Amino acid sequence: MIILPAIDLYEGKGVRLTQGDYSRMTVYLSDPVSAAKQMEADGAEWIHLVDLEGAKAGKPCNGPVIVQIRNQTHLKIEVGGGIRSHEVIASYLSAGIDRVILGTKALEDDAFLKEAAHQFGTHIAVGADVRNGMIATHGWQQTTGTNLNEFLDYLEEIGIDTVIVTDISKDGAMQGTNRSLYLSLKDRKNLNVIASGGISSLDDLRALNQMNLYGAILGKAMYTGAVNLKEALALGKEDA
Question: What does the similarity note say (predicted)?
Fold first, then answer.
C-alpha cells in the first residue's frame, strides 16, 4: 500500500482543516517545499498536495509552491484543488505533476470528466469526498444528492482508475479512520482506492493495508506526531 504524506496549501503555507471547516484551520508548515524535501528524505515516494485555497476559489492559487516542490524533489506528485478546466490539467501535467485530482468539476460536468478520462488517462484521479454516504463538493462546503457507490460505479464505467475516498466527518478529527467504509470498497478491482481522512495511528494504517487498498493519505497524524512517517512508510511495504 502506498503511503502518501499530505500537504494542504493555503496562502503558500501548509495547513490542516478539521472536517473541512475553513474556520478551523491550523498552520503547520511555513515552508512546504522544505517539508516535502524532508518527506522524500524519510523515504516517501509519493506526495499528496491539495490547493485548499484553490478548492474554495475554483481556480489554482498555490501553483508556484506546487511547481517548486516538483522542481526540488524527485517525488511522484498528485495535486487537487480548484482544477476545473482541461487547460489547468494540461499545465500541471506539463510541469511534471504525475496525477491530477478532480473534485467538484467531476460531479458538475459529466462531459468534462469523460473528456479528461479520455484525454489524460491514468494521470487523472477523482476525489470522492463523502459526508454521510453522499458526495460533497466545493471544498466540502456543499453536499450533493449523489451516493458514493453509484458514483464509483460510474467512474469505473468511464475508465477512471484511481479514486481518493475521504470521509469528511473523520478528517482531521484524530478519532480513527472509517474502516468499515474502506472495507466495503476493497473488492473494487477496477479502481485504485486511496483512503483519506481520520488516519490517526499505525493501527489504522495496518488495518487499511490488510484490505489490500492501493494507498492511504497521511495528514494531521503526521504533523501532531501521532504517526511517524518513516514507520508508516515501512508498514505500507509490509505484505497484507
Answer: Belongs to the HisA/HisF family.
Catalytic residue of the set 21, 42, 109, 129: 129
Distance CA 182, CA 213 (A): 8
Catalytic residue among 8, 167, 171, 204: 8
Cα 202 from Cα 208, distance rounded (Å)? 10
H or E segment to which residue 203 belongs: helix 202-210
Q: What is the pLDDT of residues 148-187, one digit of tens each?
A: 899 999 999 999 999 999 887 655 445 578 898 999 998 8
DSSP characters over 161-181: -EEEEEETTTTTT-S---HHH
pTM above 0.90, yes or no: yes
Nearest-angstrom CA–CA distance, 54 and 138: 10
